[in-house]
Design a protein that fits this description.
The strands form 2 sheets. This protein has a 7-stranded mixed beta sheet with strand order 5-4-3-6-7-8-9. The chain has a two-stranded antiparallel sheet with strand order 1-2. It has about 250 residues and is of the alpha/beta class. The protein has a single domain, classed as Vaccinia Virus protein VP39 (Rossmann fold, 3-Layer(aba) Sandwich), CATH 3.40.50. Helix 4 links the parallel strand 3 and strand 4. It contains 6 helices and 9 strands; from the N terminus they run H-H-E-E-H-E-H-E-H-E-E-H-E-E-E. The structure holds S-adenosyl-L-homocysteine. S-adenosyl-L-homocysteine binds next to strand 2, helix 4 and strand 4.
Length: about 250
Amino acid sequence: MKLSLTDFLHPLYLMFFGFFAVSWGWGVNAVAADIYLKRRLKMVETQIRARGVKDARVLAVMEKVPRHEFVPKTYRGSAYVDGPLPIGYGQTISQPYIVAYMTEALNLKGGEKVLEIGTGSGYQAAVLAELGAKVYTIEIVKPLAEEAAKRLKQLGYKNIHVKWGDGYEGWPEHAPYDAIIVTAAPTKIPEELVKELKEGGRMIVPVGSFFQELVFITKENDKVKKKKLLPVRFVPMVKERKMLHESTR
Ligand code: SAH
């Protein structure tokens, strides 16, 4: 029997090939998801738990959030390495350990209102949201703010609000915040942000230029206390108002 090309357009063949193509696609995705999960579990074990992060909820969330979805496609294979990675526009997604360390310091139990400065890829915001926080996050580079908002929406995060704007101005409409996390380094502590911190609130911010230190700030009985935690290296928190217009998202 001779088969011509048009014979393959028979509905039975189409169904067969369609089924084959879809299940092959599923298979490939499932294998990839499994590889990423394995790398993520290893990342938490060797980079995070091994360095002393103990909060079980933070560890569980670091095991859950798909970091590879937050890096450019070319860096997906490196998404779980022990360091920051470029996300375009001269910016970086922070090292996994630093994300976990800063998150643990905020001591979130769920239901808190958290302000993040420096949305970047949206990864840190996703980690905070997975801990049950309502997240307000500000990014000064417009395309990064737009991409992060889109990515977070696609991944199903509903409790994260991304705004394109200048973090030095805070987000007074939703203040005060239970916790504030700054993921770009100002040369000194931005007072506007401290003002937006709730009584009993916690704030963590890398401060400095070349040499930076993570500073942990608490506010109790209207008294602001500061404690230096560890030396770090973040991209600078810039004051680039000329890039801004009225629009927010
Ligand atoms: N938290 C991010 C990584 C942050 S990198 C993540 O999880 O991927 C620091 C980010 O801060 C950069 O995207 C940078 O554009 C942004 N940034 C720098 N100065 C800022 C400012 N004044 N206000 C808001 N964002 C700022």
